[in-house]
């Protein structure tokens, strides 16, 4: 995953565990596309200070994922649901009921994921 | 959900954000079924101190869920996957391909959940 996409997702999952200031800086940088200097002006701190804050915040987010792996679990689940969708589409087209067994297998895999 | 089930699930989701001591006490109480007094003896602290620690820990876990709602999201997703499983079983039994539309609808609902 590209860094921007990963940070956006991690922020989506764990952002509410960050401090208000960390949340603001993440949003300015990743959502509003402000530069480090622009964010620095906002808070009257140096570009370098913003950089350090951002790095620390990203490390916090990665730390949450390292501990909880909830994003990874969601991603895997999401992938399997896409697989079910594709099989359903194929079943619709072909009427091949043998595909139901594959769908059941994937549902079982999802249930196994939940239990980990 | 019953309190025991809820605490076990919350601990499963967010336990790794707790301190080592909090984790130990949660496991002794909820997994090993030790009494407050028994846990107190383990740490040479009073029954009341264990109670307070446990309450605080439960509050921390509820706090994580209040902020992140990830357990709630997982639960909803899980419910929908059970629904898909039931429809697949029915489809298998009846061969009624109209059920595919319902399955696709639920897949869409799951995708909408992910985006929230």
From TrEMBL, chains A, B:
InterPro entries: RNA_pol_sigma_r3/r4-like, UPF0122, UPF0122_fam_protein, WH-like_DNA-bd_sf
Coiled-coil stretches noted in the UniProt entry, renumbered to this chain: none
GO molecular function per UniProt: DNA binding
Keyword DNA-binding in record: yes
Keywords: DNA-binding
Listed Gene3D superfamilies: Winged helix-like DNA-binding domain superfamily/Winged helix DNA-binding domain (1.10.10.10)
Transmembrane segments: none
Pfam families named among the record's database cross-references: UPF0122
Similarity remark: Belongs to the UPF0122 family.
Name of this protein: UPF0122 protein NVS47_01590
